[in-house]
Amino acid sequence: MKTIFHPADSRGKADHGWLKSYHSFSFGQYHDATRMHFGALRVLNDDTVAAGMGFGKHPHDNMEIVSIPLSGDLQHQDSTGRNEIIRENDVQIMSAGAGIAHSEMNANKDKEVKFLQIWVFPKERNIAPRYEQKSFDPAKRTNQLLTVVAPDESQAVWINQDAWFSLGNFDAGFTTQYQSKKSGNGFYVFVLEGQVDINGVSLNTRDGLGITETDQLHITAGTNSQILLMDIPMQF
After folding, report:
1. Are strands 145-150 and 157-158 parallel, antiparallel or unpaired?
2. For residues 100 and 80, is the Cβ–Cβ distance under 8 A?
3. Half-sphere exposure of residue 98, counting CA atoms within 13 Å on the CB side?
4. Closest by alpha carbon to 72, among 91, 94, 101, 51?
5. Residue 88: is it exposed, middle or buried by C-beta count within 10 angstroms (0-12/13-18/19+)?
6. Distance CA 40, CA 66 (A)
């Protein structure tokens, strides 16, 4: 087993006034040659957007872009004419494929929105752009891992990659295991809140841990905790 530990305070940081963002991997003005990606996982941004502000329309291609609101409401518009609101307990994915332009704005004028923006390199290039979002009952991730992104599970949002994302809300002392969905994949665990041990490594709020050369995770919550677990191809 090999591990790559990314403490919360080691992340890149951008403060644009209206946007405060922490980057687990190189992004924008933050560049670290040792933190370009983890397998097919290219971007993990922890964003806070001020009331009424957001990202104006801009293009993407050949990237799987996942948005997970943590609090507040995010308004998505794109060049296909789509206009959607994504909220806490929703997960959105946009397969940029051959090319799409979109904007992401805070839908509220009186409170900030916090969300994770995650980019994954695609399995197939230049597919027709695709969008999907679903709501997930938070009770279904209490002391269990709930798959929210997958290439092969109808209850999850579909991704153009052999990658699986799961969310879990754990009570202190809870223990579970996770088995890789595909041989050769690695794991990247991001702690949203609390303290957890992953294969003997202690993680705290907003810490990240990449794990390779094993197909199983042993997870123990030291406190009430929330995690995002990504099962990611290392070769793509």
Report:
1. parallel
2. yes
3. 5
4. 51
5. middle
6. 13
Put simply, whether the predicted model's pTM sits higher than 0.90 gets the answer yes
Q: Where are the domains of the chain?
A: 12-135, 138-233
Q: Which of 223, 199, 221 is nearest to 209 (CA)?
A: 199
Architecture (CATH level 2) of domain 12-135: Sandwich (2.60)
Spell out the residues 6+ positions from residue 16 whose beta carbon is closer than 8 angstroms to its own. none
Q: What CATH code would you report for 138-233?
A: 2.60.120.10
Please count the other Cβ atoms lying within 10 Å of the Cβ belonging to residue 84: 14
pLDDT tens, position by position, for the chain (236 residues)?
999 999 999 999 999 999 999 999 999 999 999 999 999 999 999 999 999 999 988 999 999 999 999 999 999 998 988 899 999 999 999 999 999 999 999 999 999 999 999 999 999 999 999 999 999 999 999 999 999 999 999 999 999 999 999 999 999 999 999 999 999 999 999 999 999 999 999 999 999 999 999 999 999 999 999 999 999 999 98
